From TrEMBL:
Keywords: Signal, Transport. InterPro entries: ABC_transptr_periplasmic_BD, Bact_iron-sidero_bind, TAT_signal. Its main location: other. It holds the Pfam family Peripla_BP_2. Belongs to the bacterial solute-binding protein 8 family. It is found in: Cell envelope. This is Siderophore ABC transporter substrate-binding protein CdtB. Residues 1-20 form the signal peptide.
Amino acid sequence: MTMRRTLFAGVAVLSAFALAACGTTEPAGETAAASDGSAVTVTDARGVEVEIPAGATDVVALEWVAVEHLQTVGVVPVGVADAAGYEEWAGTGAPLEGDPTDVGTRVEPSIDAIAGLAPDLIVAVAGRDDAAYTDLEAIAPVLVLQGADAADPIGTMFDDLRLIGEATGALDAAETAIGAFEAHLEEIATTVADAGIGGTPLAHMDGYENAGQVEIRPYAEGALLPAVFEQIGFTNAWAGEGDAQYGLGITDVEGLIALPDDAHILYMTVSSSPDVFTEQLATNAIWTGLPAVQAGSVHRLPDGVWLFGGVSSMTAYADAVVAALSPTP
């Protein structure tokens, strides 16, 4: 299995489940605390009340977005699922801090490795079978983030960050990061307007090879990436539907014919993963015949920006999109 297929499986295992509830937090100032002040109770994406020791610092993150959220509020995880993969796929937009222990894959974390760290808290993302939490909850409290919700992708990202902030006693840091992100988007929206590129239709997609065939994963309405680039003045060129959690669609190369002629195609990969757009599709007549390809409007964005990440990743993504679309002086 290629790295890209492994990463796709990591996301697919999350998006394959129906969403029972969105992650919520108690209103500020109303967080339930134990009578001795030693714990805080928050409600996670499962609707479960999770009691967490006050000032939890030894935290294990089982998804990369959880790693980023923790670091955003000043908590350096002691354990990270697939730490090497994080550094490759997310380390530019939100560099990995500290020297966390690798605790297995995001799909199959190691219970023994996690137990060996004796964490205060384990952070996961919605999509796992409820039974998967049993062994983890025998080690430490498990906080489940929503991770994504196509009904409100940016709002869900903020809610998860606030939930992490509340759970770790760093809600102020979460609010500060959210404010800085919103201000940055407003600033670069002005840049987009001034450059005369507002309204440009963009289609962000992943490409991977499956049994010798190229499959395309477009980011539909409801995905986080289009929500971000729409905030700064662009439009989403992909009209197809995506799944209810991550807003991800799937098509073949022929399906890309539906893109408008003035669309720009965006994608990201890493050096260890095949670039199907420049390799497998280089001689594909349908691909090379697309108006975007013929016009030179296909843009590989910088490596290492996690496309399902938090405010740091999405800041780096928005900056990369503007840089790719801005006219050359």
